[in-house]
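Troubleshooting log. The previous run stalled partway through. Resubmitting the same two chains, unchanged.
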Amino acid sequence: MTGDILVAFDTLNQAHRVRRKLMADGLYLDLVRVPKSTGLPGCGYGVRVSANELGPVHTVSDSFGITLAGVFSAHDGGWVPL
Amino acid sequence: MIYLDHAATSWPKPPDVLHAMIAAMAEGGGNPGRSGHALSLRASEIIYECREAVARLFGASDPLRIAFTANATEALNLAIKGTLKPGDHAIYSSMEHNAVWRPLKALELRGVTLTMVEAGRDGIVPPERIAAALRPNTRLVVLTHASNVNGAINDIAATGALVRAHGALFLVDAAQTAGSIPIDVEAMAIDLLAFPGHKGLLGPQGTGGLYIRPGLDLSPLKEGGTGSLSHRAEMPAMVPDRYESGTPNTPGLAGLKAGITHVLARGVAAIREAEIAHITRLRAALRDIPGVTLHGPENIADCAGIVALTVAGRDPEDLAAELSGTYSIACRAGLMCAPLAHATLGTTGVLRLSAGDSTTDEDISATIAALRTILF
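Second attempt completed without errors. Output:
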């Protein structure tokens, strides 16, 4: 896993759409389950990114009309809202 | 075996379809959207890639607007029951399959009013007849792209334009055309497109789907687990999760993706050209046989890859049985689940020969020879 920022989506399908567009643009991102430590309810999926990759994720998500479920940073073995 | 029953299901499938299904079970055998391990994630990627392939084929800009179903019938049920409410008016044609007619008639019992528009004797539904049937409360117009009985092709773009101008929704049944006749949902003003995976798209049986135009919300046909927003009692609003409860058919969708990849590589226009060549030969040869009546449009450009015929004094079922038993030629006879179409065409059953991507010139030559032997 790479990246100390987790971008969470409400659904795996949205995560795939954003991730595949970014991959087509040359940015490879790991797809992961959203841990419970984020505090998000339900079962979400997300992508792990580094700080400089967060901008493109926002840009692509916005262009698709996809609202992010949350953005978190790694902290003390868990995740806190960024 | 000479296979001329592609309108029922395509056969044989391209080898890539079989290989993809086996690989999906061997390498992506997890439950997609339910877990975070590699097998589950790979399975979900396979399904998303299939969604992208469908969207590309039909000119849809957003792959998330493709909801997968078990077949075209389920997609049509989702579209029809997901849009119509008591007090709504719906229009359908006299060439529709029971997959359209039966759900509409079921809704009629719950307060939906219906108008059936008669096709011409050739099976084509003139757009102006649809226009004349529109009412202020018309919510949905359902039209087959091509008849499963005689292959008559409807003018989807012209009908779509007038339905959209009226403010109604346009549902197209692409069971006989997906993969063999070009479809562009945006250019044709199609709001809902139901398609099977196992016919012209060359995928396995048990696959199909519905394109849902952006901005359009349907009531789900079923509720259940989606792997998303699982803490809520109500179904998610996001597409396609809203319409895809339950574990999906991952091996089937892997096969469908391979089938569509094959279609895209061949080119829909090239497939269409080959099918036209086959049915042109069949029609020309059959016209020379005494007692044969062809049931379809005169203009070959108005026909999908289907030839429907009757023979004076001969039961179509008997002819199909003789072609199968004596000549190993697979075709279909009967009503084809479309009794309204037969009433329109003035038949009580036909012999249907349907070509597909795998049909060869030799298949057609052998079929013509067999029919000449049987009927002369």
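Takeaways: Helices of chain A lie at 12-24, 54-63. DSSP finds two helices and five strands in chain A.
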